Amino acid sequence: MTRITRGFHGRRRPDVDPARVPPGQYVTQDFPVLSAGPTPHGSLDTWSFTIRGQVDQPHTWTFDEFQALPRETVTRDIHCVTKWSKLDTVWTGVSLDTLLDGVETSAEYVTAFSDGGYTTNLPLEDLTGGRAWIAFSYDDEPLHPEHGGPARLLVPHLYFWKSAKWVRGLELQPEDEPGFWEGYGYHNYGDPWREQRYAGD
Amino acid sequence: MIDNQALDGNAIAGTLAEVFGGDMTTAIGTCGHCGTRGPVAEVVVYRRAPGVVVRCRVCDGLLMVITQVRDVFCVDALGLAELQAPA
Amino acid sequence: MLELIEQTARTKSIVFDVPGWGRHRAGQHVDVRLTAEDGYQAQRSYSIASAPEDRHIELTVERIDDGEVSPYLADELLAGDEIELRGPIGGYFAWEEAPGMPVFLVGGGSGIVPLRAMLRHHRATDSAVPVRLLYSARSLDDVIYRDELTAADAGDVRLTLTRRQPAGWTGYGRRVDRELVAEVCWPAPERPLVYVCGPTGFVEAVAGALVSLGHEAARIRTERFGPTGGETP
């Protein structure tokens, strides 16, 4: 039996435009750190970003090469499946449109892979059209390792577990394969506006 | 290297009791990756994630993943070679 | 809820009368579950600060400003209110009278809470087991249960204040490192049973120091709190 706790309302912020907050989310001011494992502390000298799998040939960028690519600074709202949302976050990174330009593929799905073994899956289409970045800066500072630095995937239109921290590359695949959390019952696609938290939502 | 984010098995004692039907913090687990044996209370727990991720204190190997999907707990003890319930 | 007691600027003790409460063991915790009218629930774990012999259940809550449960418990909860407690939980970080070996308690910040329950249990049972507490806080104002721990009959309690010490302070004024552990703890051959509780970094440092001094890992029991205490924002 569950009883109501008098005076308890959870987190409510009346001063936020409700149209910007997906169902079941609350707005937070700080930036919670979510991790499924220890924070890697690798050297930038050995860091690289790779696009591989069903491609004409694998493409790899060193950190210096990566930094030399055209960069974009974007302001986006982010939504975590643990129910916090953070508005107007500012990121700088390389658009996936830039990285995928010149990659020949017939793949329709992507598995992003990270240091530490984390993976997450997405339709390739969701990484294009100015909707996804490999971000290496947050709030005009180098991305802190706790938040996924040196670089993380940023796909703000999906729940934030899709924005893999410590990302090292993309595996392009003809078939969809569940990533880490997707394999444990979380939604395969994860649209916060349709509240796709768990498989079947 | 242990993160300041990481807690230990005491932090999920309530969840484990709900899943296993009794206290599991004194149960002895064996890591399937490196063979380390020790009480469940001493494992490394990452709770600030969509689910709970349990790792070996010695090798960081994945021992257990616990998710709660619509009030139902799902436990995958994939990395535990053995789990001896408390006497 | 019966009573709210201010401990420090950031911590309060909350005393509950819990009908049907089975006896807990010193060091165990409870899960607090709050339910909003729309069905939204939030749950956190809090160590029990009272001894099994105490008449009521006492929790000590550190108020996390952007937290969800601790501001409610510290600021909203009124005497007479009811909340849902589940427990007692956890059998590992718990102490019961066992003859022989001395018991060494090491607490950092709000990690004092379960250790305070052990100290009270020790006193309530007139235990002959030697018990010693080493408690690390930032300043004297941050010492939880300050009056109780500095009272003449507090027992063998050593305080270390890591950031600021009052004038004339005769306790320790540094972090709990290998040298301090070596100075305060019984030597390894005496095989003390050790309980360490605090933030993760604190526990790692103390447990590492104990092992390097030759203490058996199996006699060191640890409990880690999150970086901001019992609650994550």
Question: Which pair of chains has the greatest number of interface residues, and how are they split between the two chains?
Answer: B-C, 23 and 22 residues
Strand percentage of chain B lies at 35-45%
Q: Helix proportion of residues of chain C, in percent?
A: 10-25%
Count of discrete structural domains of chain B: 1
- What is the element string of chain B, with H for helices and E for strands? EHEEEEEEE
Q: Please indicate the count of domains of chain C.
A: 2
CATH architecture of the largest domain in chain C: 3-Layer(aba) Sandwich
Helical content class of chain B? under 10%
What pattern of helices and strands is seen along the backbone of chain C?
Answer: EEEEEHEEHEHEHEHE
Compact summary:
The complex is a heterotrimer of chains A (201), B (87) and C (233). Chain A is mainly beta and 201 residues long.
Looking at this protein, list some descriptive labels.
heterotrimer, A: mainly beta, Sulfite Oxidase, Chain A, domain 2, six-stranded mixed beta sheet, five-stranded mixed beta sheet, B: 87 residues, mainly beta, three-stranded antiparallel beta sheet, 8 strands, globular
Layout of secondary structure:
The complex is a heterotrimer of chains A (201), B (87) and C (233).
Chain A: E1 26-27, E2 48-53, E3 59-62, H1 63-67, E4 72-79, E5 84-95, H2 96-100, E6 109-114, E7 119-123, E8 133-138, E9 141-142, E10 152-154, E11 167-173
Parallel strand pairs in A: 1-5, 2-11
Antiparallel strand pairs in A: 2-3, 4-5, 5-8, 6-7, 6-11, 8-9, 8-10
Chain B: E1 7-8, H1 13-20, E2 28-31, E3 37-39, E4 44-46, E5 52-55, E6 62-69, E7 72-76, E8 80-84
Antiparallel strand pairs in B: 1-4, 2-3, 2-8, 4-5, 5-6, 6-7
Chain C: E1 3-6, E2 11-16, E3 29-35, E4 41-47, E5 57-62, H1 70-76, E6 84-89, E7 103-108, H2 112-124, E8 131-137, H3 146-150, E9 156-161, H4 178-184, E10 193-199, H5 200-212, E11 220-225
Parallel strand pairs in C: 7-8, 7-10, 8-9, 10-11
Antiparallel strand pairs in C: 1-2, 2-5, 3-4, 3-6
